[in-house]
Specification:
Layout (H helix, E strand, L loop, with lengths): L11 E6 L13 H10 L4 E5 L8 H6 L1 H12 L4 E7 H5 L8 H4 L11 H21 L4 E4 L19 H22 L3 E5 L9 H10 L6 E5 L2 H6 L3 H8 L3 E6 L1 E4 L19 E4 L8 H10 L5 E4 L8 H15 L18 H8 L2
Parallel strand pairs: 1-2, 1-10, 2-3, 3-4, 4-5, 5-6, 6-7, 7-10
Antiparallel strand pairs: 8-9
Helix pairs in contact: 6-7, 7-8, 10-11
Length: about 350
Amino acid sequence: MDKHGQSMKTVKGPAIFLAQFVDKKAPFNTLEGMCKWASDLGYKGIQIPTWESFLIDLDKASESQTYCDELKGKINSYGLEITELSTHLQGQLVAVHPAYDLMFDNFAPDEFKNNPKARTDWAIDTVKKAAVASKRLGLKSHATFSGALLWHTWHPWPQRPEGLLELGFSELAKRWKPILDFYDENGVDVCYEIHPGEDLHDGVTFERFLKATGNHKRVNILYDPSHFVLQQLDYLEYIDHYHSFIKSFHVKDSEFKPNGKKGAFGGYGDWIDRAGRYRSPGDGQIDFKTIFTKLTEYGCDVWAVMEWECCIKSPEQGAREGAPFIQKHIIEATQKSFDDFAGGDIDKNKLKKILGI
């Protein structure tokens, strides 16, 4: 047991999120190709983006246990496990403010574009299908985005009208509550990636949403420290506050280097020109040594999943370096106290003598 009275747990990994590596050319255009590539690089798990139908057919996965068994068997044959399914893009479409309609339509099938109501219904249905698929695949956690109705008001100018925040989180919870109930029926946790552009983008907004859902037990966190560096939020203390909700983990690095011309807002620059930017693991400012220590100490049952996003290094190099980077940081949780050798059986009389009583 650790000092918090919880059993310490070894973080699982290394694993990799496949989304950023999908390509039209081999080996990144087939499930088998990506599995062999990831396995050869030393990864033990893959997080699957469900919008890539060549990796998983969500319709089939939600209908057929046989399909899921075959999919899992195929992935296992490469020495890999599925860490989580991801519906980041579909989850985003559960709640979209009209200002973002046109750009977020890119994430929807053609038949639902220019039709926000139909798009939302499709997104909700798709995220629900991922719950059944996760259950059939034996997964306990699911990775997604919350979407956003309030993001355009995060800097309160013009001034927010009284009651706007409450209504926004109430509506967001109203859309997610049936999904969360469905995940509960299937025994799967929903892990929201706490991320800029989402209404759940820090600790306070996570708590607002949790409260709006009536403290729904399936509301949990995908912890990715890179987004907190860009907000100048204490990503280590975040674990102290929310470790019991952290059921998924992205290993992604970032850096924040403001100067006399730009800061957190970035001046509308491309990623390479911004003060806050994502980097390949080990190339940024994030203290992963302490992160892995805290996650282990708090007994967080998570996979360490590398998410590669870097404006300088190639994805191929990032992937090659990612597995050994994660492996180096994984702490095998001790089941033995280092000073056990000094212990012994309890002798009450001896204890009294030590205390002089």
